[in-house]
Design a protein that fits this description.
By secondary structure, the chain is mainly alpha-helical. The relative contact order is 0.12.
Length: 190
């Protein structure tokens, strides 16, 4: 249970309130961006270490996506409150996650836990975690060279990541539906 990947995911979780404080309190955006980047790097490393050293655990399967979702939610909140992202855009991403919540009891009723994150979901999260620091560096009112460089790149990663994020949610629902139908075909209760 106490593996290096789980420790990295736990540290990522502990960083969420610190990130929110930095970006919403004293507006220490540079430190907030560095923390967000460190979270993205640790997300990559925990998966790599888990695969390399066969350190998979049930706790890790819960912690890793929870940390990802919390960083995404925290960054969306920060960007919306600082006028760096339209509310409707953030709402689409949050609604995608909320739309998946009812699948969990369905999976449990059929004897499954949460389905593992698939490649498309990882790619979506990767793009969003690249977009967010860039969008924070290019908040409205900033006209320095970093804003000039990161504004178009941030929006490109945000657009692509958001599309992949929604599509990954659709595929997740399709997977759940396929499992339920397969159980029904073998005579298990629906």
């Amino acid at each position: 249970m106490w593996t290096v990947p789980n420790a990295l995911s736990s540290l990522r979780l502990l960083g969420v309130p610190v990130f929110l404080y930095l970006v919403l309190g004293p507006h220490q955006d540079g430190w907030a961006i560095l923390l967000l980047m460190a979270a993205g790097i640790s997300d990559y490393l925990d998966g790599k270490i888990a695969r390399r050293f066969n350190q998979f655990s049930r706790l890790g399967q819960l912690l890793d996506p929870a940390a990802d979702r919390l960083y995404i939610a925290a960054t969306l909140l920060a960007l919306v409150l600082r006028d760096g992202l339209p509310l409707w855009w953030a709402a689409v991403l949050v609604l995608r996650d909320l739309a998946l919540v009812p699948t969990l009891p369905v999976l449990k009723r059929h004897g499954y836990g949460p389905l593992p994150v698939h490649f498309l979901g990882k790619a979506a999260t990767f793009n969003l975690l690249y977009a967010f620091p860039m969008l924070l560096a290019a908040l409205p009112g900033r006209h320095d060279w970093t804003a000039t460089v990161f504004r178009p790149l941030g929006w490109a990663f945000a657009a692509w990541g958001s599309l992949l994020y929604v599509w990954a949610g659709v595929l997740y629902v399709v997977q759940v539906r396929q499992l339920v139908l397969a159980d029904r075909d073998v005579g298990l209760p629906a």
